[in-house]
Every structure is written in C-alpha cells, then in structure tokens.
Amino acid sequence: MLARKVLGIFPAGLGYRYASTVNLKEKSVGVIGLGMVGNALVKNLQRTGYNVTTILDVDPAKYKDFSCGTAQTPLEVAKAVDVIFTALPMPQHVKAVFEGDDGLLAGLAEGKVWIDHSTTDYEQTEDMNEEVIKQGAKMLEAPVTGGLEALKKGQMTVFMAGEKPIADEMMPMMEDIYANVIYTGKMGTALIPKVLSNMLTCVQNLAMGEVFMVGKRAGVDMRTMFDCIRASSGNSFVWETGGPMLMQGTYDPSFSIALQCKDNRLGYQIATKHRVPIEILGHAMQAYNRTMYAYGDDAPCYSSPRMLEEALGVDLRCEGFENWKYSIQNIDGSSVIRHHGIDIKRTKVVENADDLLG
Description:
11 strands; six-stranded parallel beta sheet; 49% helix; 15% strand; alpha/beta; 358 residues
C-alpha cells in the first residue's frame, strides 16, 4: 500500500527508489567484524535508519559502542537477519567466518543476502559465491575505498559486484550509507580495481615523499610545495591526504601497513595470473615490504617516506597541519578532497559545469 501511494506522488524513478528504501529498512541487518570499517558501517546504517539487530566480533569489547544484540557465531548472525555485512581484514579471516558448522554459509538460506566489504582474494570470493547460490541465498562483493575519515561521514566510494538484479535491489541501501556506488559487473570484478587502486597509492606515496624531500632540501617551504602541487597536474588523492599526514608525522594510522602489503600481494597475484609485468607496482610492493619489516605490521600505511627521512636525517614536518582533517565530496563521480583545520582559501563552487568550458 505504501509503495503504491509513493509511486502515485513521486516521479517514477524517485518513487521506486523511495519504496525500495522503505522495504530495505524493514529488513534486519547483521554485521560481522567491528574493526574500523565495521564500526563505521554499523553507525552509518543506524544513522540512515536501517535496522541493525545483530553484531559479532572476536573482541567483545567492541560491542560497547552499540545497543543492538550480539551473536556467538557467524551461523547465529546469518540465521537471525535478512542482510549480513562482513568487514574482515584478511582472506583467511573471511574463509574462517564463512566455513564450518558454525560458519556463515551454514546459516544462509533463500532470501538472505551477504554483502562482503572485505578486501580479499577475488577468486576465493568467486568460489564462495557458488556455495552461497547453492544455499538459495545471494552475495555481493563490495570493497570500500576513501579513507577512515570519509568512512565515518558516509563519504566513501564502494565498488559492488555480483548478479545485477540483487545489486539493483540493494542499491538504495548502499547509496544511503556511501557517497558513491559503482557497479562493476560479475562477481570478482569489484575487488580487482580495489586492490589495484591501493597498489597505485603506494607508487604515489613513495614519489610524494621524494618530491617533498627534494623540495625541502632545495629550500622550498613545505606548505608552499603542498599548495603548488595541489594546484597542478601532479596532484592526486594521496598528495592531498597523505601529504598532510606526512607533514603531521602520523603517516595515516587508520590503516596498517600489513593490510596495505596484503592488498599489494593480492594485486601481484592478479597481475601474475593474467601475465602482466608490473615493474613499477612491483618495486612499490617491495619498498612497502621493506617498510613493514623495519617498523612492524602495525605501522601506518604511509610510513615509507619515513625511511627516506631517517636515511637523510631530515624530517618533513610542517607547522599548521596539527589539526588538519579532510572530507570527500563526490563531484561528477570524482572524489574531491576538502581540507579542514588548516588556513585555506575557499573557492566559489561552479553550479553549472558547462560554464568551465568558457
């Protein structure tokens, strides 16, 4: 009845989306894995009105932030809810949650949907999807990208892959909790751009450290260097986010270098399978391994420039970035960084993109 009324009030597309969202908000949702991604996911789901009823993590201390029910096993979560999200650090963790008598698969049944936010092995995901289908359930892979600060605000991009009808069904929910949702096609195709994007950030981070170091040794003010590159063809997401973290000396503590190196290995496996030489990405992979071995698995993911700082005895700190934070604005499908906590000149927003053509 509500759906018919909505469709009678709103234009066809908007009415259908509103009705679909209402329907999804009536479903029960469970989340397995309450690390940085899972914690923010639960809060974004609750903030946008979705019914998160059950959560699970290996560390019960993480339950304190939430009032919803808890489970003892992945099986309990799968049986209790209609939609299950997982957000796990490594392929082996996804495998452990999925398999066994108390595993996720054993609790899946017709009508249930599993959405995996983990950045994992895409071939493993394809195999798991076949098992999910045999149970009569549906699966979507949905790795997220954009950084923790963006995730907290629901400003992340998510790549989503799987059967198109189920992707379309879940799209209103995903668009409610993320700023940009890109459907990539069949199962496995979302994880490929995700891990390759993460590998690309390694190349950019290594180059960024060298650029800052050359500039500082040549006598260029660090803030001036930051602003010049930010306004030029050399700019990138990493420059605008990793640069301030380098100047803070934090090197992005929200994501460990062990997880970054895991993504690098996944990207290397994909390139090897498809017989593509990756000389630049491969060099970055080894440089990151070296950094991880030097500073440990929990070192921040942008720590590689620190090795250059220590080798040359020159730090790349810059006053004025102590309180810097960022947010992401989705403009025409591109992630545009907005800076906060630093002195910056705000520009007038262009309402009509065609005006830029002159």
